[in-house]
Amino acid sequence: MNWNAFLEFVRGPLFQVSLLVFVAGMLYRLVRVLMLGWSRDNVPSKGSKGGGVVKSFLKSILIWPFIPWVKRTFSKNPVIYLAGGLFHLALLVVLILGTAHMLVWKSLLGFGWATLPLPMVDWMAAVGIAAMVALLIHRLVNPVMRLISGPSEWANWTLVFLPMVSGYMLTHHMFFRYEVLFSIHMLVVDILLIWIPLSRISHFIFYFFARTIHGVEFGKRAVNP
Amino acid sequence: MQTLEAMNVFVEETGGWVASQLEACTRCGMCAEACHFYQGTGNPEYAPVWKLELLRRAYEQRFTLTGKFKLLLGIDKRISDEDLDHWSEINYYACTVCNKCSMVCPMGIDLGPLLHEVRAGLAAAGKVPDDLMVAVNKQIEEGSPLGMTSEVWDSRLEWVADDWDVVIPRDVKGADTLVVFSSIEVMKFPSNIAAIAKILNKAGENWTVSSKAREVVNFGFYEGSEEHTKLFLQRVLDGAKELGVKRIVVTECGHAYDALRWLAGNLIPEANDFEITHITGVLGELVGSGRIKVKPGFFDENDSGTITFHDACKIQRRGGYIKEPREVLNILAPKSFKEMTPNREEAICCGGGGGVIAIKAADPMRYAAFELKIEQVNKVGATTVTMSCSNCRLQFTDGVEHFNLDWKITGLAQMVADAMED
């Protein structure tokens, strides 16, 4: 098999098609939800809706990741909590502050930025992979997680895990030739990009809706969200 | 056919707010750890996300490509009549719609109102537990789920006025404030009526009760039926309109306050003509401003042991009266008042709300959930538990008897009345 030709395909035309599907798919999802209609709330508020929204986001950005032990749910299950948080942190660090990924962004956006040294990004990637394994074990053994996990949930885990682990192997030139690993990494990234609009990985957009609604509902009642 | 009825409601109610929140769910399962029914029983089906399953399926299969595709592949199933029966039990037996789950959701999904939509679908399909439906029908026919007909109301109120030697203004046209009691208070905690009457008289309020608006309890809201909810809300509003009051004060009843304060104005626009408030807010204002004089430290001197306050889901977490009870208790019992953990908006629900206490078959779940409360109260070493919701109070009174606990259960209004200076 000509791996070089395959690599050109998966990082070239297929990547572009996948990106297009990803963007168009997410836009479709967004418009679809927006078009379903939003009822007006005519009841006078006790507190401030806007204030509630601000607090709701602050809680999500400052309290949840940094002082999670204020929550009982944290003390009940700290490993899973940390795994979830570290996974997202690792994802952001590697995707935005990793040099290789920044160069992809640069080719798409036309500008780049300073990145972290490779060893740091590499450690974050390892942390992210370990977190994913912890989350998988949790999903396999916890009775609630087993109940609410269907084929889509397993697909989500697999399709997020493959780019991470192939990227890690690529950085370390593990087991296979460089072009083979690079091709596989790009292929699974392409598949993931197409999968996201079809799955719950799209929560990164709807998160903003849910947080806002939560803030409005608590704010109007003058309760801390 | 029943499934169709339920689906229709799910589809109708699915506006952007339902859809966007269902889409935000990552199925992380964290909400389970917040649910007192899951914690109390360990049954994974009581995870709030699983209780929503019907609404999720209806939404995805009707509105999303993935949902239609999954249906085609046989990965997702259509909702069947058996599913409705199954989720009816999960939702009505083991959920008080207390909304604690929304406090722990990393996405911030407001699960309570979504769970209410599940009930709406089940109600349309006629899948409401019999015990609850009996109560709903009783309220439709007799005006009260506890059988508080107009005659019973008259005689109970006369008896309270006589026995506690208190004036209760009835059907006074042109009064400023209409006080709406729950039948739980009238029938089970009559001293609460006397207590609130004494306080309002002492404060010189121009208030009244109404025989038309005699029942503030709303079993249609528990059921999830918008039609019945509206019918019962309308009765209260009609009573208020007839007497020409400006303000409606809901007494110690949680869900009734939730329905009247936050829902009525969107179902019946004229509800917004009234200022709708809760007795906890009134107590906070009267005591705080000194309009009624209470003996500071009254409950410290009476050696009643440690007193703790139970936050009701609909009055504190979803009502916003969080600081008022603390202010009052810090005057009445600055030394003996101690907080449970978690408290305030993070409090653990009593386990009896949402109509659960009215369903006999739900008793095992209800008691299992109450065990969390027992642990909390014992941890703080309290011998008196006070609260501002008579539905919680019913659950506590019953729990104390069931578990043979040596606690005194009381209400905030009762405590204020007891500590009032003559």
Could you explain how this protein is built, in words?
The complex is a heterodimer of chains A (225) and B (422). Chain A has a single domain (3-35, 45-219), classed as Fumarate Reductase Cytochrome B subunit. In chain A, 76% of the residues lie in helices and 0% in strands. Chain A has helices spanning 3-11, 13-34, 49-66, 72-76, 78-97, 99-109, 118-141, 143-148, 151-171, 178-195, 203-219. In chain A, helix 1 runs parallel beside helix 10, helix 2 runs parallel beside helix 10 (178-195) and helix 5 (78-97) runs antiparallel to helix 7. In chain A, 31% of the residues are buried. Chain B has 422 residues and is an alpha/beta fold. Chain B has three domains: 2-127, Orthogonal Bundle (Fumarate Reductase Iron-sulfur Protein, Chain B, domain 2), CATH 1.10.1060; 131-284, Rossmann fold; 293-418, Rossmann fold (3-Layer(aba) Sandwich). Helices cover 55% and strands 7% of the residues of chain B. In chain B, strands 2-1-3-4 form a four-stranded parallel beta sheet. Chain B has a three-stranded parallel beta sheet with strand order 5-6-7. Chain B starts with a helix and ends with a helix. Chains A and B meet through helix 2, helix 3, helix 4, helix 8 and helix 9 of A and helix 2, helix 6 and helix 16 of B.
